Amino acid sequence: VFFNRLNTFSKLCLLFSKLNTQIQELHTQNFTEEKLGQAEKTELDTHFENLLSRADCTKNWTEKIYRQTEVVLQPNPGARIEEFLFEKLDRKVPPRPTNGDILGQFMLEAAKEFGPGTPYGSTLIKVGDCQRRLGGAEREFLQTSSISFLTPLRNFLEGDWRTISKERRLLENRRLDLDACKARLKKAKTAEAKAAAVPDFQETRPCHYVLSASASALWNEELDKAEHELRVAQTEFDRQAEVTRLLLEGISNTHVNHLHCLCEFVEVQAMYYSQCHKYMQELQKELGRKSPHSLEVNSHPAGSPTDPSAFPQLNSPSPLKTDTLQIEEVQPPASGTRKAKVLYDYDAADSNELSLRADELITVYTVPGMDSDWLIGERGNQKGTVPVTYLELLS
């Protein structure tokens, strides 16, 4: 009994396979005839076509936004591949430290080696702790963004869009079946009209000779069958078109949902950057109360090359910014002026500096006692100090 049922099942599978092959061949033939202009194609209404176009546009841009958001949240492609594999294997992604966590850990370990009581070691501890807090904020931002923004986009692409695509393929098959029924009906009408015009028997036959059926009657029966198949195909096509239309009109709700998720993503991102800014401000205030420039180093004699007094303080004003040097009173030397090309934009910090714009040419020169990192630049009637690093001196 088991082998008989297995044999019957195998025959049914073979029959369904042949039937599927015939349907695919019929659809391919219909596609080919449509491309060659030999078959009539059932056209969809303009509103339906607009819904299809809008759905395709939504899918394409959602996919691009989803992929680029993944890149922004996780720039490392290796880490993204690893997360993808864990997701496909239905396993939990192991916790991964952020770059801020790693940097903070390195700084804390370095502080232990250098000595927590030294100025450099104590500063490393403060900065390392801040980096770890930044890493924690980043980790929380990644998790929240993934849940509030990436997950709804992925659910649409892997859920709703797959359903829409499946129904669209089914609608296309229904349309091809409808077109085939229309072609069959047209062929039957043509053959029936031709058979009615040409008799299928001769007058010279005996009067008692009775024909079982005439060619006209056969084509009339074929015509009735074709009309019935057309009505069935039209009903199935209309039903599938209505189902697909309802799914496509749901794209508007998808846009509303994605808009809400986008607003949440912006709020989470703003909160993350605000938190990072707060941590950095606290670190700056903490370091400002004990600036490295105010530390007294007694390990070297005064006047030695390593004596801090031999070097200018970073917080002290440069010779260009002292009250004894006024830009208006500086005169260019008789020789030594040069042309310079501005590499980057620079906004003046005070009235003694000159704002710069990239790719412009200015005249520069120096005067005795100036800081080597600065020059005096002129542009027409404007004059002020400019940083050397923003210039390319021309010979």
CATH topology of the largest domain: Substrate Binding Domain Of Dnak, Chain:A, Domain 2
Number of beta strands: 5
* Helix and strand sequence: HHHHHHHEEEEE
CATH class of the largest domain: Mainly Alpha
Keywords:
single chain, about 400 residues, alpha+beta, Substrate Binding Domain Of Dnak, Chain:A, Domain 2, SH3 type barrels, five-stranded antiparallel β-sheet, 5 strands, Endophilin-B2, AH/BAR_dom_sf
Task: Explain what the structure shows.
The protein is an alpha+beta fold and 395 residues long. It has two domains: 224 residues, Arfaptin homology (AH) domain/BAR domain (Substrate Binding Domain Of Dnak, Chain:A, Domain 2); 74 residues, SH3 Domains (SH3 type barrels), CATH 2.30.30.40. Helix content is 61%, strand content 6%. It has seven helices and five strands; from the N terminus they run αααααααβββββ. Strands 4-3-2-1-5 form a five-stranded antiparallel beta sheet, with no helix packed on it. A hairpin with an 8-residue loop joins β2 and β3. α4 packs antiparallel against α5 and α5 runs antiparallel to α7. The radius of gyration is 41 Å and the shape is elongated.
